[in-house]
Amino acid sequence: MADKSADYNTVAKDLARREAELGELDASLKKNRTEIDKLNADLQFREAKLTELTKALADKDKAVNDLKASVSNALRGFQGTELQVKMKDGKVYVSLSEQLLFKTGSTKVDPKGQEALKQLAAVLKTQPDVNVVVEGHTDNVAFSRPTAAMQDNWDLSVLRATEIARLITAGGVEPQRITASGRSQYIPVAPNDSPANKALNRRTEIILTPKLNELLKILDSNSTTAAPTK
């Protein structure tokens, strides 16, 4: 009886140990299952955000392409060496030569240039979600007739950009959408080593950028919203 009692106690202790081990294993499994569920939820959240972001980027690209097509169509009578429409860095650039817009040293837009800007403004009126930056550029030839209002190429480029901004707003585009800036001689598109290249640098670029409100909202939500947890 004593031997049987000892065997029973040994078996009971072994059973208790095994039950404890099973309890720990069950707790570990539940913890792992919770962590897996959390990871799955996080993955689903990230996949949904990625899908949303991909769609927003595709919508933005389509908006830029549609804008370029609309502008190109409206200005098809002017395109050539005097006016070019191109896409760069997700924006639409309308590059207008000095020959189309201004007489040498002048800040008043010629009638042909005014007509081109009128056509452009008509397109922009139908595109309320597009911001407009007007950049004036010059060659590196020093301004030869400084006045109290215009000392150098900085002034010339700024005043030309401002004049174009006024004409675009006169065409019906809201002024709060437009920024006028002058870049002087410092962003050339060709070396200033020949009359032809200098003519290329004497230009005005109108940069059209669709507003990215939806895309920015998504990026902001990605940085401020945590993935859901269970």
UniProtKB/TrEMBL annotation:
A single GO cellular-component term on record: membrane
Keyword Nucleotidyltransferase tagged: no
Keywords in alphabetical order: Coiled coil, Membrane
Coiled coil: 22-56
Keyword Glycoprotein found: no
Segments forming domain OmpA-like: 89-212
Pfam families: OmpA
InterPro entries in UniProt: Bact_OuterMem_StrucFunc, OmpA-like, OmpA-like_sf
Protein name from the UniProt record: Cell envelope biogenesis protein OmpA
